[in-house]
Specification:
single chain; about 270 residues; 2 domains; five-stranded antiparallel β-sheet; three-stranded antiparallel β-sheet
Length: about 270
C-alpha cells in the first residue's frame, strides 16, 4: 500500500468520526435494537446487558464495514463511477469477517463458541444487514463523501492567478490533498503530528512529517524559514522586524516567524 492510499483512507475515516450525522445514525440504530431486543435478546438479557451487547456488536461490525467500504471506495474509483456501488462492494465483502466477529461476541456473552461452518452461516446472514448499513451510511454521509471522491471543477483563473499556478512538474504532496484543495502551494506549517498545507484553493492537514513534506515539494520555489514553517517565494509580501524578531508578512496577512538558524538565508532572499 502506498502513502497516497493510506492518507486517503485516514482522511475518509476522519470524515466519519467527525460527522454528527454518522454518530446520530449510529446511536439511533443501537437504541432501536436495545428497545426492540431482536434475536431473543429482549427475553434473555436485562436492559443494561442488552445495551452493552448491542453497543459492542454495532461498534465492531460498523468498524469492519466502514473500513472495508472506504478501502473499496478508494481502490475502485478508477473502475466504478458510482460512490454507492463502490461502498456497497466493500460492505458486502465485510460480511465474512463480521460473521466470525459476531460468533466471538456471542461466545463472550453466552459461552458458546462459534464453529467455522456457523461463522460462514452468520456471514450469509450478515449480507443483507451489511447492505442496509451501507445504504444508511451513504444516505447520512453522501454529501461529505462526494466532496472527497469527486474532483472539483477547475476555476477560471485571472491573469494574476495564472502567474501563481503551480509548476509544470506537479509537487508530489498535492496528491495527498482533496481535489478541491489542490492549487499552487503557498506555505507549509507543523500542526502536532500533521503538516498544514496551504494552497491558493484552501488548506488541509496531512498526516506527514514536516521533513517528508518538504521533500515532496518538488521544484516549488520557496524557503524553509523556521523548523515549523516553509514559505513559497511568490507568497511573501515583505520582511519586517517585530520586537527585535524577524517576521515574514505573507500576502494573505499571515505573519510567519523566522528562526535564528534561517535568518541569513531569509535576508538574502527577501530583504
Amino acid at each position: 500500500m502506498n502513502h497516497s492510499f493510506l492518507s486517503s483512507t485516514l482522511r475518509e475515516l476522519q470524515l466519519f468520526t467527525r460527522s454528527w450525522r454518522f454518530w446520530t445514525t449510529f446511536t439511533l440504530v443501537i437504541l432501536i435494537f436495545v428497545v426492540t431486543g431482536p434475536y431473543g435478546t429482549l427475553e434473555r438479557m436485562t436492559l443494561g446487558v442488552r445495551l452493552g451487547y448491542w453497543l459492542i456488536v454495532h461498534a465492531v461490525t460498523w468498524t469492519i464495514a466502514i473500513c472495508l467500504s472506504i478501502m473499496a471506495e478508494i481502490l475502485l474509483r478508477n473502475r466504478i463511477n458510482h460512490t454507492l456501488a463502490r461502498m456497497m462492494i466493500g460492505s458486502l465483502v465485510a460480511a465474512l469477517p463480521i460473521g466470525f466477529a459476531l460468533g466471538a461476541i456471542d461466545f463472550a456473552f453466552f459461552g458458546h463458541w462459534t464453529e467455522m461452518e456457523t461463522g460462514f452461516h452468520r456471514a450469509l446472514f450478515a449480507l443483507p444487514l451489511c447492505a442496509v448499513f451501507c445504504l444508511l451510511t451513504y444516505t447520512a454521509m453522501h454529501r461529505q463523501i462526494a466532496e472527497i471522491s469527486t474532483p472539483a471543477p477547475p476555476a477560471s483563473p485571472s491573469p494574476a492567478a495564472a502567474q501563481a499556478a503551480w509548476p509544470v512538474s506537479e509537487p508530489e504532496i498535492l496528491a495527498r490533498l482533496k481535489p478541491q484543495n489542490r492549487g499552487a502551494i503557498l506555505r507549509l506549517s507543523v500542526e502536532d503530528h500533521y503538516t498544514d498545507v496551504v494552497t491558493t484553493r484552501g488548506h488541509e492537514l496531512v498526516l506527514l512529517r514536516f521533513a517528508d513534506a518538504l521533500k515532496e515539494l518538488g521544484a516549488t520555489p520557496g524557503l524553509q524559514v523556521h523548523r515549523s514553517h516553509w514559505v513559497a517565494d511568490a507568497h511573501v509580501e515583505t520582511l519586517k522586524r517585530d520586537n527585535g524578531k524577524l517576521v515574514l508578512m505573507m500576502k494573505d496577512g499571515t505573519e510567519i516567524p523566522v528562526s535564528r538558524t534561517y535568518m541569513d538565508a531569509v535576508r538574502s532572499r527577501f530583504d
